């Protein structure tokens, strides 16, 4: 089979095929494989079944949760839901793990073109260039005002527009805006937000780069990188 995208979490892996199928393998203690199984893990890739007949077009792996976007712009999530970084349940329902892909209800006006997953927060980029975030918020991970330790409801980061790409580290996020600038926010203990200090960043802040354009961005747990054209 031909693989078109891969993603790796803390202790599990995901792969999308050209046919739009999703495979997972690794640890499954937190249901991060999305296979609706009680097995502790798998050393061999196996297909992830979705409740609807969908074609997966993109995937992201957080610490112990996964997100997938379909070719029609829908988003599914599974795995660790400790900070409701996967799916928003109402106050009467407590679910710390989501065993299999569940379709998320997002307040979006356009299709999702990219998903991003941190340790306990998640993001979605729409075709109109808007970014929505949800999950853990105490380090500024959501890039928007939040007076609670986490926010289970996906909400728009209003100060960002025409975003081209978004990626998550463990507790921080990077995004490329429509005018080619790099923004960062979230946990900054190791300086991975690139602001010149180690203070946590609670709103998207421009990262100054001496470059003509940014071609690719990426995040690790406590570091960031950007491939640029000078």
Automatic annotation (TrEMBL):
Keywords: Repeat. It comes from the Eukaryota. RCC repeats lie at residues 20-72, 73-128, 129-179, 180-230. PROSITE patterns: RCC1_3. Residues 2-226 form the RCC1-like domain. The keyword Transmembrane helix does not apply. InterPro entries: RCC1-like_dom, RCC1/BLIP-II, Reg_chr_condens, Ub_ligase/GEF_domain. PANTHER family: ANKYRIN REPEAT-CONTAINING PROTEIN, REGULATOR OF CHROMOSOME CONDENSATION. This is RCC1-like domain-containing protein. It comes from Pomacea canaliculata.
């Amino acid at each position: 089979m031909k693989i078109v995208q891969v993603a790796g979490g803390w202790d599990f892996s995901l792969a999308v095929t050209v046919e739009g199928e999703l495979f997972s393998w690794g640890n499954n203690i937190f249901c991060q494989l999305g296979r609706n199984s009680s097995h502790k893990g798998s050393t061999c890739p196996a297909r992830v079944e979705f409740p609807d007949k969908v074609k997966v077009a993109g995937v992201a792996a957080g610490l112990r949760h996964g997100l997938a976007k379909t070719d029609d712009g829908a988003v599914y999530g599974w795995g660790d839901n400790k900070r409701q970084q996967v799916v928003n349940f109402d106050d009467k329902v407590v679910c710390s793990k989501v065993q299999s892909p569940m379709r998320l209800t997002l307040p979006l006006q356009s299709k999702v073109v990219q998903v991003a997953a941190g340790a306990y927060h998640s993001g979605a980029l729409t075709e109109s260039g808007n970014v929505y975030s949800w999950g853990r918020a105490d380090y500024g991970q959501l890039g928007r005002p939040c007076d609670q330790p986490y926010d289970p409801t996906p909400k728009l980061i209003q100060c960002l527009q025409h975003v081209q790409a978004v990626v998550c580290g463990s507790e921080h996020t990077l995004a490329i805006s429509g005018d080619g600038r790099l923004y960062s926010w979230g946990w900054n203990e190791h300086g991975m937000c690139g602001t010149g200090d180690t203070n946590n960043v609670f709103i998207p802040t421009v990262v100054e780069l001496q470059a003509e354009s940014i071609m690719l961005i990426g995040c690790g747990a406590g570091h960031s990188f950007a491939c640029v054209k000078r």
